[in-house]
TrEMBL record, chain A:
Belongs to the YciI family. This is YciI family protein. SUPFAM superfamilies: Dimeric alpha+beta barrel (SSF54909). It comes from the Bacteria. Pfam families: YCII. It comes from Salinarimonas soli. PANTHER family: BLL7171 PROTEIN (PTHR35174:SF3), BLL7171 PROTEIN-RELATED (PTHR35174). Residues 1-113 form the YCII-related domain.
TrEMBL record, chain B:
It holds the Pfam family DUF6596. This is RNA polymerase sigma factor. It comes from Salinarimonas soli. Residues 109-159 form the RNA polymerase sigma factor 70 region 4 type domain. One of its GO terms (molecular function) is sigma factor activity. InterPro entries: DUF6596, RNA_pol_sigma70_r4_t2, RNA_pol_sigma_r2, RNA_pol_sigma_r3/r4-like, TPR-like_helical_dom_sf. Residues 76-95 are annotated as: Disordered. Residues 177-276 form the DUF6596 domain. GO terms for biological process: DNA-templated transcription initiation.
Amino acid sequence: MKYMLMIYEDERAYGPEKAGAVLDAVAARHGAFAAELGPVLVGGAGLKGTPTATTVRAGTGARTIHDGPFAETKEQLGGFYLVDVPDLDAAIAVARRVPLVGEGAVEIRPVLQADDAR
Amino acid sequence: MKGLEEAVRAAGARIVAALAMRFRDLDLAEEAFADAYARAAEAWTDGAAPADPAAWLYRVAERRAVDRLRRARVRGRLAPEPPEPAPTAEDAMTDETRLIPDDRLRLIFVCCHPAVAPETRAALTLRLVCGLATDVIARAFLVPEATLAQRLVRAKRKIREAGVPFEVPGPEAWPDRLDAVLSTLEIAYAKAHEDAAGSGPHAGYAREMLDLSRLLAELLPREPEALAFAALVRFAESRRPARLDPGGAMVPLAEQDPGLWHRALIEEADPYMRRALALASPSPRVIQAAIHGVWCARASLADPAPWPAVLALYDVLLRHRDDAVVRLNRAVALAEVAGVAPALAEIERLDAPGLDAFLPYHAARADLLRRAGRTTEAAEAYDQALALGPNAAERAWLGRRRAGLG
């Protein structure tokens, strides 16, 4: 099964521009982690900070464009992994090892598959 | 229909578990078993029950499950192929216990997966592993039946869609997963235990907890916490006949007549307890069971209550789990060993969120204030306890103590 592991952290931990020493250090840990995952890893990326986010919102009328993330939250989506593992326990085992700076959370979501369209 | 009910009681969980594991689908297992049960109710008129009712139910349910899958496949063009039941050596045997593989442990681990909400885990386990009806569980958890049914549907869907494995977890996940199983069973048992009279909505399901804890201890004979849980449920259940006085008021543990306790249950509990203690240095669950065991070793009211041993065990427990509940219980024992004043000082030092809404806190405090002769404060504390909505037995006991203050 494929799962998306979404990394939520307080992006302030990375400094104002999400750049510099902290980011470099964490990026190195992610690089090593991705290499360890090997064939389990299907995809993934780190994201720039929410100040760079733009949101297109669909309401009743035309789609409107907004500055900022979809939702203002204490912790923000900062990156994701897409992994292919046998079951939820295996996904949890991977999620436990995802590098984090301090407090944060990794949300595990199964990816929709063709045979889910029942 | 006695034969049918007995067959279901004896083998229902095994059959549902075997179906669930075979088809990797909890709903399908439940529905197929319900189909088989309905067919049996029609077919087994008095005296016509088959020689091996459990094997009959299993075979019929298995066939119904395959039929249901086939129909689902025809209906939905994208529906998956049903997993082919793997031929096993057991299939050739006629013995029922060989025919129906024992997958109950796997089923318990599925129902108690940490990815399912804790309260729902307990309900799901009682439903699938104990076979309790949804309305019975709903009453036990004080939620409307429709709400509980909805939670069960959601949990089963989550288990299916999120890919919860139908396996006993491997060593890396084992501590977390066994802990989730035991916490779930503790939640379930706490509901049954609260009802001292055993006449409320939980009546009968304390017995399910005895079964379930025995099963877990048999399946995991090297796990001290599983053994301790089996011991704890037995120790606690043994005291049920002494927990209420003839007027329906709660009787505190130290005032219960050990002559009324179920000796047979205590004798069942003792070996579990001994094995749990022999296996490893005690963990909180093992220590808690040991505290129950120390009480149950009391033979009569003429013997001194085992307060020094209880206090010593709470001291050990405190080293593992330092929280307000443990400290409160320790203070109650301390009052009996060292006197009311130091115990009261301990209780007044407690500070935890939610303590104000915790009935045992006010009840223990009221009792100590009463014994210290601080009548006005004791009355206030009793009133605080009574305002928290105690059950009938607690209310009668607290009310009597409150009235006795003079």
